[in-house]
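Example 3.2
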Amino acid sequence: MKRPWKLVLLRAMAIAVALSSAAQGRQPPKAARILYTTFDALYVTDASGAQGRLLAKGVRAAALSPDGDLVAYADEKTIRILSLVTGQSVTLASWQAGRIEGLAWSPTQTTVAYQLAQADGAKLFLAAYPPRTEPPRNLGPWYETMSFSPNGKLLLHPANLAGTTNHGLEVVHVDTGKRDVLFVAADLRAIFEAEYSPDGSRIAFTLSQPPPPPPPDDETDCSGPELHLWVLTVDSRSLVEIDLRRVQQAWTNVKDFAWSPDGKFLAVGIGTVDCDYPGTANGVFITSVDQTVQFKLSRGQQSLGALFAPDGKQVVFTEYADDAYHPQLVIGELATRKLTPLPNTRSKEVPTALDWK
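Structure, written as tokens:
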């Protein structure tokens, strides 16, 4: 049976209106933001470099919020929260004496943790966001880096374990301040950096190697210990070393690392043990956690500080290859291993990626 043409036309118009309304209701995907510093100047940009801008100077530490719309940054006396959407900022915390040594957003975006070194030692503080009238909570002594568990209930860090001469991995319960030891490093080895995997099932950390024989009396040893990368499975407490000698024999000292968003890969900066930063040689490598996939991504002899994109398909890192005195940020495609310089980031002050969300 033939349908009346008017009915067909009305139905077509209704479908067109519905499709138009649905299209108008969809929001275009938000461009991911890269936060980086050059010495103490803080910048934000998109991955094309077209939207780069200076946010602040005199910055000591900074991080993007989990949704990527806010920046927490610290200068010598305050921590401020800046909205990248509205441009407005508020003061979250302040102090009269001390030196900020790091900060991190909680996964719930309701707290900023920060480490403040004062005359009686470094301490961990938690400041609520949005700001409240009560002062930040003091959770006691802190050492090295900080990493929230994915649910925001725990804060992980390397620790000088009380009553011993050992280092270990310690977690602080955010609600109660209770502390638990997850791992003890034997043979007086030190842990310098530790980070939860995105799902919280593993912890990656750098562990010092046994010290080499002391140099002759007429030589100064200023290089510090060599660091290797290990992964601890939280539930079983099993431990595996990430060994990249299959793809790089000459460099074994781990300078930095970062988890991929799916927790299946690590970007690792390895190089030589040297007195001066960044050292004689360094490279950015990608490894799967099971170590079946490993390759060098950087092309030169001086590359450090890789961070994954939110989709895990790219990393950004500092590359010294073309100009050792004016390094810049580059973006590496993991599938093709193509490297693309990030425009307007070349600087003698060493651009360093802090976050990508």
